[in-house]
Amino acid sequence: MRSKLLELVLFVALIVIVASGFAHTWEQTNTTNDYLAISMSADGRILCAVTSGDRVGISTNSGKNWFTSPIGLGIGGLAPNGAAVSADGTKIHAVVLAQSTWLSTNQGLTWQQTGFPATASWRIACSADGTKVIASSWNGPICFSTNSGANCYTSSVPNAQWVSLASSAEGSRMVTAVNGGDIYYSTDYGGSWVPVGFSPRAWTSVCVSGNGGWMGATTGTNLYISNDAGTNWITNGLGGQSIACSADGSSWIVAGAETYTSTDGGLNWTTNLPSVSPRTVAVSADGCEICVLAHDGIWMGRATSSPKLNLQPKDSNLAFSWMLSSTNFVLQQNPDLGSSNWRVVSNVATLNFTNLQQEVTVPATTNLMFFRLMAQ
User: Fold this and answer.
1) Which of 188, 201, 311, 360 is 20 to 30 A removed from 277 (C-alpha atoms)?
2) 295 lies in the same domain as 238
3) How far does Cα 233 stand from its chain's mean position?
4) Co-location of 177 and 88 in the same domain
5) What are the pLDDT digits (tens) for 170-182?
């Protein structure tokens, strides 16, 4: 009886909530024209933008409003990776010219200097929980930390012109590229690196999906995407300065002469954003929030989120999960699909930082029960 019940509930959950393709609606949310680097939390809620001067812009509501962080210590976003934000926005890493990197744990209100060496023009990336951090400088080393920068170490690769860095959610798989050289990946949190095997190219940007299985890279004239951790690649003529992807590798954005988006793993592309001379881009975990940092300010592309609800039996419980969304969803239950008696499940969902899934466990019973996700 229990087995049949679980099969029925699983079937209903999957047909009630399904994922679908989406188109973004664009809005300019900031007209500051000297921001040079930007990063966002996985739900698209917390954004950090840095200038080449002494300002950090912080938004805590998906770019709708901004305030200038009071760090005032020479923040410098001289590369597309001058900022990194944890999945929940509780940790923000920012690059400071000639003063190492800085960390905020209260959404930019106060900052503390990390243990990374003092050098100019760092690129930086971090894991979903913000604890695994890599940073590199032009013609310098790659340094890594597993405790949010409190202690850092120099990786095994020699100094090089590192142009971009990216990290998977769990942080073990990281990606970087050398200007005029190869793409490198790490499977030990940035300690050691292995070249993918590309002939030298003028790389401009790299990215990696939440699970580390998808990689993307751009030159000025082409983009390259791999769905098998760099073994095989597809390419086309949509080059640019920056590339980013969703946590599952389905949604992509590349910014060059124009801004192009894809919702099918990079097979097909479209553009519906005005030509804004983009500098760099960021994407939420579900691909529904896109941030484009351009010469005329910051543009946000928004789409309706429709996460897929997953269900697995776990001991005597039902384990539900769904991708961290740019819209807040709650799990609801109802014993009768013919009624409107949907009630929020009392157990609170928690974020799994290793895969960016919201997870909640519900005790299984012998009573028939249906489940759905509802936006709040």
Assistant:
1) 201
2) yes
3) 21
4) yes
5) 999 999 999 999 9
CB 299 within 8 A of CB 29: yes
User: Do 6 and 46 lie in a common domain?
Assistant: no
Q: What is the pLDDT at residue 271?
A: 86
**Residue 319: beta bridge partners?**
312, 361
**Are 208 and 215 within 8 A, CB to CB?**
yes
Which CATH number do you get for residue 327?
A: 2.60.40
Query: What pLDDT does residue 277 have?
Result: 80
Q: State pLDDT tens for residues 209-241.
A: 999 999 999 999 999 999 998 999 999 988 888
**Containing domain of residue 333, as a range?**
2-17+307-375
| Longest alpha-carbon distance in the chain | 66
What are 176's strand-pairing partners? 165, 184
Which of these, 89, 22, 77, lies nearest to 293 by C-alpha position? 77
Q: Going by C-beta distance under 8 Å and a sequence separation of 6 or more, which residues neighbour residue 331?
A: 309, 320, 344, 345, 349, 360, 362, 371, 372, 373
d(CA 110, CA 89): 14
Q: Does pLDDT of 14 surpass 80?
A: no
Which of these ranges, 42-56, 177-191, 203-217, 256-270, has the smallest mean pLDDT? 42-56
Shared domain check, 360 and 245: no
- Please count the structural domains in the chain: 2
Averaged pLDDT for residues 236-250: 92
My answer on whether 311 and 297 are in the same domain is no
Task: Let me know whether 291 and 324 are in one domain.
Answer: no
Residue with tokens 């679908």: 20
In degrees rounded to 5, what are phi and psi of residue 23? Answer: -115, 145
Q: Is 346 helix (H, G, I), strand (E, B) or coil?
A: coil
Q: State how far the Cα of 26 lies from the Cα of 303, in Å rounded to an integer.
A: 9
Question: Residue 177 belongs to what H/E stretch?
Answer: strand 174-181
Query: Do 249 and 179 share a domain, yes or no?
Result: yes
Say whether both 321 and 279 belong to one domain: no
pLDDT mean over 344-354: 95
Helix ranges (DSSP H) in the chain? 2-16
Q: What is the dihedral of CA 309, 20, 173, 269, to 10 degrees?
A: 180
